[in-house]
Amino acid sequence: MAPIGAAAAARQADPVLTRIVEQDTVPWYRKRNLRRLYALLLPTCIGIEMTSGFDSQMINTVQITPTWQAYFNHPKGALLGIISAAYNLGAICALPIVPYVNDKYGRRWSIFIGSWIMVVGSLIQALSVNAGMYIFARWLLGFGIPFCIIAGSSLMGELAYPKERPIMTSLFNALWFVGSLVAAGISFGTQGIKDDWAWRIPSLLQAGPSLMQIFFIFMIPESPRFLISKDRREEAYHTLITYHAEGDTSSHFAVAEMAQIEHTIRIELENSKRSWREMIVVPGLRKRVIIGSFLGVFTQWSGNTLLSYYLNDLLGLIGYSDPQFKGKLNVGLNSWNLVNAVCISLLVRRFPRRKMYLICATSLLCCYIAWTIALQQYGMEKRVQPARLTIAVIFIYQACYNIGYNALTYTYLVELFPFAQRAKGITIFQFFGRSAGFFTTFVNPIGLNNIQWKWLITYCCWLAFEIVFIYFNFPETYGRTLEELAFLFEDRSLAEEATMNVEKQMNWADRRYSRIEERMSWEMDVVIPNQNGERKHGGRGEVRDMRRGDWWED
């Protein structure tokens, strides 16, 4: 069986828009409107994953807090599992309705709704009086996060300039570690508090990222692709002109991008019922669903949930029980994660997606093999060397995980699914990811309690499967715009039809701009004195407003 990347690449049409983008040598920070857009995307979209990072780290660090342990009567096994897993369970329950909110009301309203749900969940969590209330609060937090993640990742990919899109969507996941680091620092700082506020304060502050999103979300434009799908073409074109062409209505790039988006979405909608059923029935979409589903599982079953939720137990297996040491290690680990995740995100434009995923999965397998051996050696001899090796492997593992499953996840998903099915596609990814996360978060403490280091062998076997699956099934999406990837698994003629429309509109625009320039040049040469002796231009010189919504029609 041959890898799927070459076959999918053969069906892609000529990358007209990509070539235009490559000719643009002006960096984003020299474009005023684009700078403003990216500055607003930081708190509204990129910052969404800070909530997930905060939650994962907070539930990890409160287990080190003596007052939390005492308040909830030292939860272990199944109770500890459901406390940690309730967040993912809430997310699973929300997923059936998230795509409809996205497709009907737009990306911004979905983020707004989800953020308010998480604010309420944070308040309930901070004021919990028993384990049941605490579990419900975590369920509610999880219920709100998919609205924001699915809309935010889509909106960022659809608003960003094509040259920076891979970096922006990669930073989306990298900011997970900002939330994680902040939670680790806050929890470490509140450990000295002798009452219940040692864990209630971090719970309350979890609402911080959501409040930022509520405040800033309507300061950014709606997705041009969503606007076009709702026949609001003038607004869509105005957004593209403002942020991708810096207000230049004669921009060839804006002409090509508008034509490509409009014609691609038209073809998509003509060939799509936008139903859940067609995600399985249509061969091209079915391939995408399989890849997205397994990618969701891979992001949770690669051993990362052990570190995100049960670092306390893992350190206990190698003899580290001091809460101060655990807190410092936790802050150091999250600082390391943030630095390497951001660095990898900034370099993601330079490397093909398949290669990065294969490097990621292979290196994770090597880390887990070394980790398993180190834990086994410590269990037999109780020597300090295997314990130190375990800590070193944990740091190396995190960098390896960030190469693929952190940096590329939403970049790849936005590229993999076309606009008409993007919200549903990311929802499917979220369903399998959250389900896998719920399962592993629930069973990890049980496995660690019963078979200790042997539990890591299951992850070694699974990681070997990941390598094989990625090699044979992941297509390459590197170096193309979203519309150039829209027909990745479909008939090549559909991709060529969209490309022909782009070229047609560009040729039409070239002829029109030439006529306008010729007319304006002629006007400059015809100067007529008026009765007062003043000189003014003759000729009519009417130049049509290029912002009108009907100019790009055939």
Automatic annotation (TrEMBL):
Gene3D superfamilies: MFS general substrate transporter like domains. It is a multi-pass membrane protein. It comes from Neocucurbitaria cava. InterPro entries: MFS_dom, MFS_sugar_transport-like, MFS_Sugar_Transporters, MFS_trans_sf. It comes from the Eukaryota. Pfam families: Sugar_tr (PF00083). One of its GO terms (molecular function) is carbohydrate:proton symporter activity. Residues 41-478 form the Major facilitator superfamily (MFS) profile domain. The chain crosses the membrane at residues 37-59, 79-101, 113-137, 143-161, 173-193, 199-220, 289-311, 331-349, 387-413, 425-443, 455-474. Keywords: Membrane, Transmembrane, Transmembrane helix. Belongs to the major facilitator superfamily. Sugar transporter (TC 2.A.1.1) family. This is Major facilitator superfamily (MFS) profile domain-containing protein. GO terms for cellular component: membrane. Its main location: membrane. It is found in: Membrane.
